[in-house]
Each structure stands twice: as C-alpha cells, then as structure tokens.
Amino acid sequence: MNSKESEEIFDRGINYFRAGFYSSALNEFYQVKKIEPDYPNIDYIIEAATKKNDEVAGQISNFIEENFDKEIQELSEELNIENSSHLGPKVQRLLKIGKFNEALKELKVAESIIPDSRPLLMLLGNTYRRLGMLDDAEQVLKRARVIYPEDSELLNNLGNIYMAKGMYTDAEEAYRTAMRGMRDDPRMLNNLGVLRMQTNNLDDAENLFRKAAKLVPQWKTPRKNLEHLAKRMEILEKNIEEIREEYHKHPDYLDIGLNLGKNLFFRGFYSEAKSVFRSILKKNPNLLAAWFYLASIYEINHNFDDAIECYVELVKKAKKENTSEYKNYENLREQGFVEEAIAELKKVAVVELDIASSRINIGIKYFEDCLWVDALRHFEEAMRINSNYPDAYYWTALTLVQVKKSTKAKELLKKAIELNPNYADAYFQLGLLSKSKSKKQAAEYFKKALTLNLRPSFVKIVEQFLKEEKLS
After folding, report:
1. Cβ contacts of residue 152 below 8 Å, gap of 6+?
2. Residue ranges per structural domain of the chain
C-alpha cells in the first residue's frame, strides 16, 4: 500500500503537470520516487514529465547528460584517492554503463577518504541529480561551493539543480555568479535561456539561445532549443488570437477567460494575463485556478507579498487553512522566511485542475446556444485531454446527433457506457437513436436506463414509449 505522503505529493505533481508547470511536476515526482522507489509507474511518469519539460522549457546542458563520456573521464582522472588507485576508473566505468546506484556507493567510500575533493564532489552531486535525489545533490554542491566559492563549473551545476527544483531565483544567482568566469561560455547562455523559458520569458530565451548557437554552431542543444521555442511561441500566439476572439464574443464564459489568461502567462505576457485573471476573479472570486495562476505570475516576478496573498486566498477558499502545512507557513512567515514560507504554502495551495471538465463546461454552453461546431470542438478536445472521461464521449455524441452523424454518436455513447456501466443518460440516448431501426433494441436500452438513476424527465419519456409499444 502506498503511503499517504507519497499519494499527496503524487497528486500535487499531477496537478502541476495538468497546469503546464512541468518542472514543478517533475520535482514532485522525484520526491515520490525518493520516498517510495517502487511507487506504481513512477519511472514512466518521470520519463514522460522530463520529455514534456524538455519540449517546452529547453534542454539544460550539464556534464552528466551531454558529452557524458568525455566529462566523466576527465573528472574520474582527476579523482586521485590515496591507496585506492582503482577507485577512479571503477567509478568511471560504472557511470558510463549507467549503473548510477553502484557508482554512488563507490563515491561514498571515496568521500570518507577525500571529502573536500572537487572532482569527487562534482561527481557525487551530479550522480545524485541523475538519480533524482535533488535535495542530496543540492547539499553536496552547496558544501562544494563553500570550499570553491568562485568555481564556475560547480556553480553551473548547482544552478541546474536549483532549476530542476523550481528554485528559479537561486538558479539565476548561481548562473550569474558562474558567468563571471564563463562570460562567453555557450553552456551558460544556454542554461540561462532555459531558465528564461521556465519562467516564460520567451523573447529573452530566444536571444540567449541565438548567442549560444552563434558561438558554437556545431552544438545541437541551443539549436534544438530554438526549434522547440519557435514551435511553442507559434502555438501560444495562435491560441491567444483564437481564444481572445472567442472570449470577446462570450465574456461570461469564464473558463474561456481562464484559458486565455493561462496562454498569455505561458507566452510571458504577464501584464495582460494579470488583467484577465483579475477580471475573472471580480466576476467569480471562487474560481480557484485563477488565484493559482495569478499567484504564480507574482512569484515568478519576485512579488512575493502579492503571491502570498493570492495563494492564501486560494487555500482559504479551498478550506485548507487548518492543515499542518498552512500552520508551518504561518510560523515561517512570522519569522521572516518569506521564500521558505511560500514553499510550504504551495504544498496546500494546489488547485484540482480538471481541464477536461473545463472544456466540457464551455462546450455545454455552446450546445445550449445551438452552436454545434464550437460545442463539438470543445468536447473533442476534452476527449483528447482525458480519454477515460465518460462525459466527454456523451456530449460529443449528443452534438454529433445534431449534425446528423448518428452512427458515430452511437459508438461514442457505447464508449461512455464502457467507461461507466451505470451511465443512465447514455442508455437513454442510445434508446432514442435505436427507435427508428429497432423498437425492441430501443426498449432494452430504455429498460436498462430505468434500473439506474435516470432523471425524472427522461423517465416519463421512457415509460410513455414502453406503454405505447406495450413493451413494459
């Protein structure tokens, strides 16, 4: 059985993932793996989150992931251990073949002999990172920084750790300090570009990647990042244009406004995004997702007081202020530890983002206005977001009926029932669609619907049909 702590962290990670905060999601999943290495599918989920994060937030170049063989050879050759001449080559071999846990054991042995060795601390810190043990990696590299305060390579790797943990302010400080000794180093420009992508400053990221690519034209990473960035900007700008027009037509459809604000946020148009979220919250202060995104914008821009105000509002409206995490936040805030307080507050300031449900809600409004094309677009998007959501198939089917596509509608209603065998309304709609071809088949669907929790208005229709056909 999974521990409650693991499940809570995992759920938090899933919500970050759905919200598009892939680096934050990845950090939560790594914490789950640290607590329970055998948590169901955790390795697959980490792999998927890593891939998604690389797609939208750039690729970090550090020695453990790029030019791996060359870097570990250089560091391992520097790893001189008294009376243990075999240990360096052994660590090198284990790292090269991907046996990171075994390499870590050997590095821990070396640490007891040469605790202040620069190559040892670099190898140890980044092996922890490779295993997803980010807290351990941070501690090792912070210890190394005390011994080697101006070492740019070390600071670069420490910045990578901070970025993986979503600690963007600390990451930027580490990178900026590192650049004093690596000002024209393309790795630093690339990593700063990745940091800009993580914080949605896409135009700054583009400039940094271009500089890195110009310095080393044959290096693939910044060029790949430029390609990913161009695609991301194109998609976001297209979405913004379409959603803005849709929201202008339907200003009372707050889910559309929320989607507009989110896309503006991810494009880095913070001022307009804030205006949209504030407007939404004036109309509906209980829309928790708007508080969540608004707080995130303030936090990224280091406006911590406003970020805390929004996160606290979210927590109170979600009735989570009696949790231990919220009490910890209050204590840390009183002591003046603002960033630590935010980190604790964010453990409970997480909104359940059911994006598929949001699409269905918008679609239903279009359906009620007989705007079938718009309704269908949102219902089909809900199916793509969550292929296990019975309501998405049900509402898509109802819309297809309106545009004379009954055969496809039947298939989707059956899929909804497959996902939810007690879906009374789906049985009822199948009955209606079957009447013209087989009254007997229709009666079977209607009778099944009656055994379930069918709404009263539908019950009257079913009973009338069965009475007229004398099939009751």
Report:
1. 178, 179, 180, 181, 182, 185, 188
2. 4-57, 422-472
